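Exercise: predict the fold of this chain.
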Amino acid sequence: MGRPTRRVFALAALTALTTTGAAARTGPLDSGRRRAAEEMRGVWLATVTNRDWPSRSGLTAAAQRTELIAHLDRAVRDRLNTVVFQVRPSADALWPSPHEPWSQYLTGTQGKNPGWDPLGTAVTEAHARGLQLHAWFNPYRIALHADPARLVASHPARRHPDWVVRYGGKLYYNPGLPQVRAFVQDAMLDAVARYPVDAVHFDDYFYPYPVAGQSFDDDAAYDAHGGAFPNRAAWRRDNINRLVREMAARVKRVRPGTRFGVSPFGVWRNAATDRLGSDTRAGVQTYDDLYADTRTWVRKHWIDYLVPQLYWNIGLSAADYAKLVPWWAEVARGTKTQLYLGEALYKAGDPAQPKAWQDPAELSRHLTLAARHPEVRGHVFFAAREVSKDRIGAMARVVADHYRQPAKPPR
């Protein structure tokens, strides 16, 4: 999840917009229907570019801690039960990692010790409040700029320039190199070994989103490692499949009982591309563009949970929330992978968004619709800043309609 970031990409991936169809809308749950005693009620807490926390880099340790606690307390007040905390936004760390530098989003200077342990504190304080803490990692993004010289001198990307690909004005680790795949797993698993996190969480960034007129330069890696595959796309998908399978197995070994989940872009493939795909016309398809075969991960139970980012309103022509929910429910049906839905709280009240998002009840209708599908075990809201500000009361409406009683996360 990046920011100007994954949500921007999700919006740009679609083509035409339509107004919400009245027939697709439903009201809140009637009082006779009780939501499950166990359901995911989560919020993403993004740190890249100081999106949600800390409010700016360079705050004192005490001020950072105060802001972090405020987000946890707000989650409790809204009867949420899970915080998905971004702890490795850009090949860096929000804990004292032996592998990667301290994040610049804490102090303003990459590699500078902030004087406290944000991840350790977040785990302790979340658990003290009855919240789960999911540690959110971005596997391959190095920087939101394209100049390795701007990285701290000790950065692994500077020690191993052959691992790095410049693309779209940013720096990425090359997913096609086995040594890169092993390193990023080691870096992430250090946090799992140190802290009793409840889950490891990946977002939608695997291979980067397409940039018009540019190609991701992995020729040398493909020549060295891609010979067994019919084409480069199949090789790239295998690279991501290996990351997911290996990470899942290693998480279980390092800390048994810790879950592993992924939150991908909400369209696997369009039906026009693949008969198994959804009735959508998205400009991005995770299978083809990010090389993430998310449907297979669910069907084969390589992951414990999936949170597709269904960041579109009911009735949108290119990607209708009301059509995507049953499609994902069918994917999850009969599997051991739990399905939660990613919700675009950040769009509520944004004047740049379609008319549907100016209605405080839009998100509440999402939860009502999803409740018809027993495979849907809950929702995660993007993101913490909007939970706190709640621009037009959309989150308050969700709480009033659906979260009147506490709920535990799904087991």
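Check your answer against the key: The chain is about 35% helix and 15% strand.
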